[in-house]
């Protein structure tokens, strides 16, 4: 029987690939070497570098653990777990899955991805966190294992890097299956993370179910790479984003060349359908995050909450930059309560205490008066049942949106790329 990889290549013979440099060869790739199955004790108070977030309990790091896939490929993971799991304790596992590097490796990191580390102080993270994933130094004290995976084709993981779709979903299934059977694991697995780490969650859960997977925390992701990113509005959109992503990958083989595939297949077809995530199939408890600050994930986050089959779903709309929110102590405490309920089975009142929707809105200045921000206002649904949909009209004389249709037709132009206001 053909493997999923072989089937996809047969289905899409025009699939384009870009050869990757190795982690050692990539000029911008942070790399700490390859040490299969090396086991390191990270004692209480351990810090990776001075001034970083310390571990508050004795912990174990297992480096470059080979995880077998059903087609014979091996992908590699770094496993963090409380040290008492070496004796008799069993803990749930939280899986962070993407090709961005495992544990402070790769190109993307908070030092270069935005000014001032996007608000994160050095002491807010340990340096052991996977980019856009939960920090092991935080979660060890809560009694969870953190599994940082290099997805297929990334780092030393075998195969080619693929963008979402059936191959990634199959690999996530096999990884969950492997983790759940380890001697230190309680048999309960959750997933967590932002952006690609969120997309990999809903991509998997839309295509497969695994009895060990108890909960998801997709903290801002998209479900439709064509309409949300590459072809938003029916035209080429933000091509630089995926070129940047491609430039940040390293591995032994190749990466699926999404920008070139869009150039070759500019209209939505069966190739883009293979990447589409049917969120209506998701039937596992979910704690979702959304914001209006990142257009990249806004539509996908709200869409996933709105359409997912599960009745056990909660949405928090925050008012921060998404990476900053990922490591806020209040956010982690909230996520811990969710995981305690669904990964540990603790009856802690999550369902009764947590509104289905918590809505934050950014304030702005209008007519000289300050409109205050709204933070986590409790709501029962999204879209809001009390919403009123109204039509706004462009008024060429006033050069603004108005509620009433102008009596006289007119026109105006605006140079959107100009450095000054160019409306005439």
UniProtKB/TrEMBL annotation:
GO molecular function ontology, one term from the record: hydrolase activity
A Pfam family of this chain: Peptidase_S15
Domain Xaa-Pro dipeptidyl-peptidase-like, chain residue ranges per copy: 71-311
Domain of life: Eukaryota
InterPro entries linked: AB_hydrolase_fold, CocE/Ser_esterase, Xaa-Pro-like_dom, Xaa-Pro_dipeptidyl-ppase/CocE
PANTHER family xref list: COCE_NOND FAMILY, PUTATIVE (AFU_ORTHOLOGUE AFUA_7G00600)-RELATED, PEPTIDASE S9 PROLYL OLIGOPEPTIDASE
NCBIfam families, per database record: CocE_NonD
This protein's name: Xaa-Pro dipeptidyl-peptidase-like domain-containing protein
């Amino acid at each position: 029987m053909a493997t999923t990889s072989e089937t996809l290549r047969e289905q899409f013979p025009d699939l384009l690939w870009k050869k990757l440099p190795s982690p050692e060869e990539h000029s911008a790739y942070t790399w700490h070497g390859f040490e299969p199955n090396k086991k390191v004790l990270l004692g209480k108070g351990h810090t990776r570098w001075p001034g970083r977030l310390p571990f508050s309990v004795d912990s174990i790091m297992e480096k470059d653990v080979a995880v077998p896939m059903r087609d014979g490929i091996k992908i590699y993971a770094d496993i963090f777990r409380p040290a008492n799991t070496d004796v008799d304790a069993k803990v749930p596992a939280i899986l962070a899955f993407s090709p961005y590097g495992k544990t402070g490796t790769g190109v993307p990191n908070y030092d270069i991805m935005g000014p001032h580390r996007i608000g994160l102080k050095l002491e807010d993270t340990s340096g052991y966190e996977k980019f856009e994933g939960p920090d092991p130094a935080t979660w060890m004290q809560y009694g969870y294992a953190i599994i940082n995976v290099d997805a297929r084709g990334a780092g030393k993981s075998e195969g080619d890097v693929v963008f979402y779709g059936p191959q990634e979903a199959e690999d996530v299934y096999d990884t969950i299956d492997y983790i759940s059977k380890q001697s230190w694991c309680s048999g309960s697995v959750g997933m967590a993370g932002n952006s690609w780490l969120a997309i990999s969650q809903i991509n998997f859960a839309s295509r497969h179910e695994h009895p060990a997977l108890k909960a998801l925390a997709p903290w801002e992701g998209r479900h439709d790479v064509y309409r949300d990113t590459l072809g938003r509005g029916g035209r080429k959109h933000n091509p630089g984003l995926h070129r940047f992503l491609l430039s940040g990958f390293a591995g032994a083989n190749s990466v699926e060349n999404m920008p070139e595939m869009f150039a070759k297949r500019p209209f939505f077809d069966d190739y883009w359908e293979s990447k589409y995530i049917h969120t209506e199939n998701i039937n596992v408890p979910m704690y979702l995050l959304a914001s209006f600050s990142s257009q990249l994930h806004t539509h996908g986050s709200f869409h996933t909450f709105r359409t997912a089959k599960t009745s056990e779903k909660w949405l928090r709309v925050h008012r921060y930059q998404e990476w900053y929110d990922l490591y806020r102590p209040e956010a982690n405490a909230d996520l811990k309560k969710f995981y305690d309920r669904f990964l540990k089975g603790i009856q802690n009142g999550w369902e009764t205490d947590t509104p289905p929707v918590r809505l934050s809105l950014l304030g702005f200045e209008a007519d000289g008066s300050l409109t205050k921000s709204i933070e986590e206002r409790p709501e029962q649904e999204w879209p809001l049942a009390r919403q009123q949909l109204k039509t706004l009209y462009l008024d060429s004389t006033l050069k603004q949106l108005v509620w009433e249709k102008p009596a006289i037709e007119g026109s105006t132009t605006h140079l959107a790329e100009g450095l000054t206001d160019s409306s005439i």
